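Input record (one chain):
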Amino acid sequence: MSIELAEQNLIFGSPEANRNKYFRWQDKPATRPLNDYEKLMVYLFSDETEENAKYKVVQRKSTTKLEPPLTKMDKVKQAWERILPHRELVVGGLRIQTQVRGDASKTYNSSEMSDGERVIFYLIGQCLAAPQDGIVVIDEPELHLHKSVQAPLWAEIERLRPDCLFVYLTHDVDFAVAQEGAQRVWLKSYDGTSWEWELIEDNDNLPDDLLIEVLGSRKPVVFIEGVNGSHDVSLYREILTGFLVIPRGSCDQVIQAVRALRSNIQLHHLQVYGLIDRDRRTAPEIAALQADNIYTLDVAEVENLFCTQEVLALVSTRLARDATADFNQAVTQVFKQLKTELDTQVSLRVIAEVKFKLNCFNASARGESALSVALQQLTQGIDISALYAQFDGEFQAVINAADYRGLLRLYNRKSLPTQIGNALGLKAGELVELVVRLVRTDERSAVIAAIRSYFGAFAHLVN
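The corresponding structure, as predicted from the sequence alone:
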């Protein structure tokens, strides 16, 4: 087949298609699946034959040795091997084979390639076959491709076709972020006839991955502490099903993300919240954060959610144990542990309060004298003895009243679920795993009811 007919057959679906989109897509280009791998191979080999024939004619007329042309098949082979350096394409005659690089004994036909190997070959070949100065639209560029090769593959293809404009349609945040220097467009909606879209503006205060992730959300967004894969993040996602739950690591990162999104006019349509541990925050701190839609749990740390009296009752019942006896033993054990480290807990509360007060330094002061006065006024307002007495009194009140809920509000100890799990006959890590499993069963509503009130002012948003 001539190169002209092979090209028309590939692009329009038939050598006699006369550039009618009906032939290739049956007039449904948006939904009609294609099966044109064979047509691509015919095109590449036709190009190979055409270029070699031209070279043969020119070489016969020349008195000097000429370099053979770099055909499209050569370019496919070079690019494919750069993306998959452990493999090698063997092109011979009208056949393509694959082998482990440097080992001709381990050769297999192109029909036996993995999905990834075939897709990489297909995408490179199709883009090389695109018309000069064309627009190449790629829907779901990550299809059948491992994340490690997605960005390098398309960078390689774009390098081969600098004349073309590449448009990627993707739901993959990582892929979108990896396209450095690209203009990003948010496809907001489609009514069957037209698209509503908007250019995504760069924001120095907001990481690209975060901006792209939240743009298309139909749900309100809640940022939480922690990382993907942790039990606390899993618990949040099972409970807050009406939200797009995004872990941001530390509380500072949660606070920064919420404030940045709420100040971004492009995201005015989004409801954005933050949910952080109480840690050692005072009531004024909590109120100030809530003014920015950043809510504080009514427990010192998220791990304490796994240790509420209501949750322990569910777990004991699930294990066919005596819930009252288990809870009494857990309370005795935890209060005993708190008493042994009371000085440490009180000291950490004092340190946190001092740090908070130091952040109130008058940054508008100018000149040596004014700065000295500002510092003196600030430090004069920090009374270590009074702070220690205040926080020690809070802990003592909880201990004297055997106030378990108050303990969960004050006690920062990430190992608390392990300590309490021991009282229920569970090994380290088993309590949190069991609670996460329970919330994924028909016990979900019971788990939510057992935890909801510990979400503080955010509780009314937990359904």
